[in-house]
Amino acid sequence: MITLCNARVVALTAARWQAFWEWPLMVGAVTFLGVYAWQVLGDVKGLASEVAAVVLTVTWAMFAVDYVGRLVLADHRWRWFYRHLLDLAIVVLPALRPLRLLRWGRPRREPPGSRRHPSPAAPR
Length: 124
What we know:
Low-confidence stretches: none
Shape: elongated
Largest sheet: none
Strand content: under 5%
Distance between the termini: 90 Å
Structural class: mainly alpha
Number of strands: 0
Helix content: 55-70%
Oligomer: single chain
């Protein structure tokens, strides 16, 4: 039986934090990239779209938690923050969804039977 008097206290350090999150973040990165590319470039609708959104949110949250944890555990937080601006961009940019702009360059699919060109405007 462990009591407070004889319990071993393990300090959470930045090195332990990084060692704990290394593989989960690796799997999360590959998952995020695959699902994000599928969602942006594919024609995802319905339940698949909802599942993709949940997967992206969970993996993004993993990276956000890791970033905040490393910032909190840093000895010199402002110096760490300044030296890890790329990490901040990696966490923030997916939330802004810049790759959604790729959809604008993709040709639209016309429904069957629709006219390719709009009808001319009525004379004024």
